[in-house]
Specification:
Layout: E1 6-8, E2 11-12, E3 21-26, H1 33-36, E4 39-43, E5 56-59, E6 71-73, E7 86-90, E8 95-100, E9 108-110, H2 133-141, E10 151-155, H3 164-176, E11 181-185, H4 194-202, E12 208-213, H5 219-226, H6 231-244, E13 248-254, H7 263-273, E14 279-283, H8 290-293, H9 295-298, H10 306-318, E15 323-326, E16 350-351, E17 368-369
Parallel strand pairs: 3-4, 4-5, 5-6, 9-10, 10-11, 11-12, 12-13, 13-14, 14-15
Antiparallel strand pairs: 1-8, 2-6, 3-7, 7-8, 16-17
Helix pairs in contact: 7-10
Bound molecules: iron/sulfur cluster.
């Protein structure tokens, strides 16, 4: 089911806080007094009286309440909220943003919208304002998240632009969520600075991986894709520095018309020079942001690159590299590649289309980005 992670429609039923705040959701009116101060009580039924001491109150049904501050009526877009979720409430905008959802395996922290690349297919085009409040919120949210959380992603923008604050954020995650797997999406360039890479390694997070894009074996082609001169050299040096500090690295290669031609050479380059990376992901295009704006130039139907994809995958596998195909529908892949395909699209933006009705492979198939409305492979046919 699609989920709007940030949605307006929150209506104040009483006096409110003046500024945005972060809190955890609880549906337990008998929660211990000690925990109430950081929790919002979520009530689905009638509420004539509200227990004291909670950070605030979220009601699914309108009830005349006047004796508590921060009582809000939720809109229909907030149907998914449940105990353990951590949210940011902005009373002035009337919005709720889910920072962490217990029911999801796709929890991702956006830590900045700033970036030093300008990729032609960027799904989250950079903005250049001060957005340090994003990390301020996360620093409040992390101690509220269940230690049972299995996986959290960190994304931008470019997270490494946070500098030392990224190191502190990873240390905070290690302290509060030591069993939670962390995956950071970064262009890797800032780790060309060996001391920064050492700082990341010194966090000694037990389950941390950096996902770093490399789009060609040719420096000038990678630099063109990311629209930054010298980026290839910095990224490769960053990868080497992180690995030197025993930080795990995943290479990410996004397949589109500008990269597809050299995909087999890219795989050979990785198999010869970067065999120490921990994972290689060959990824379909997410058609939002610049990718959507440049779709005419970038789109290529996956059925038209199955030969190159197969060659790249086999090269990587022969080199002993763990290899995955992300963001592809099974019916658009050569059946010999199905064992490499992963369900990689985050739940909140993942859909299946009409043609998928009755498909017996639907459970194993990654489906589509909800944004993939303009172009879809001509090979989409249900397995019967
Ligand atoms: S028909 Fe739909 S569910 Fe079936 S393999 Fe194709 S995309 Fe996946």
């Amino acid at each position: 089911m699609l989920v709007k992670l940030s949605a307006r429609g929150l209506r104040a039923l009483s006096a409110t806080s003046r500024t945005p705040f972060v809190a955890r959701i609880s549906e337990d009116p008998a929660l211990s007094e000690a925990e109430r101060a950081s929790d919002l009580l979520l009530l689905s039924g009638e509420a004539s009286e509200l227990p004291q001491g909670f950070r605030g109150y979220l009601l699914r049904r309108a009830t005349p309440i006047s004796d508590r501050e921060d009582v809000y009526l939720l809109g229909s877009d907030h149907h998914y909220l449940r105990t353990g979720d951590v949210v940011r409430i902005d009373p002035a905008r009337g919005s709720v943003s889910a920072l962490y959802r217990t029911a999801s395996r796709s929890n991702t922290f956006l830590v900045t919208e700033r970036c030093d690349n300008f990729c032609v297919m960027c799904s989250q085009p950079p903005k250049f304002h001060d957005d340090s409040w994003l990390v301020d919120d996360l620093e409040q949210a992390i101690p509220l998240i269940s230690s049972e959380a299995t996986e959290i992603g960190i994304t931008g923008g470019e997270p490494a632009l946070l500098g030392e604050r990224l190191v502190r954020l990873l240390a905070l995650l290690r302290r509060h969520l030591p069993r939670t797997s962390l995956h950071v999406l970064s262009n890797g360039r800032r780790f060309a600075d060996g001391s920064f890479a050492r700082g990341i390694g010194d966090v000694k997070h037990p389950d941390l991986m950096f996902g770093i894009p490399l789009y060609s074996d040719l420096p000038e082609e990678h630099d063109y894709i990311v629209q930054a001169r010298g980026a290839f050299d910095e990224t490769v040096r960053g990868i080497l520095n992180l690995k030197r500090r025993r930080v795990r690295v995943e290479l990410r290669f996004v397949i589109h018309r500008e990269t597809v031609e050299r995909m087999p050479e890219f795989a050979r380059f990785v198999a010869r020079n970067l065999t120490f990376v921990d994972h290689v992901a060959l990824m379909g295009l997410e058609p939002v942001g610049f990718a959507r704006a440049n779709l005419e130039t970038l789109w290529i139907d996956p059925v038209d690159y199955q030969g190159a994809l197969g060659e790249a995958v086999m090269t990587l596998e022969r080199a002993g590299l763990a290899t995955s195909i992300y963001n592809h529908q099974l019916c658009a892949l050569d059946p010999r590649l199905h064992r490499f395909a992963r369900k990689s699209i985050s739940d909140w933006k993942n859909i299946y289309v009409e043609a998928c009705e009755g498909c017996r492979r639907k459970e194993d198939c990654g489906g589509f980005f909800a944004s993939a409305t303009l172009r879809r492979s001509r090979s989409i046919v249900a397995y019967t």
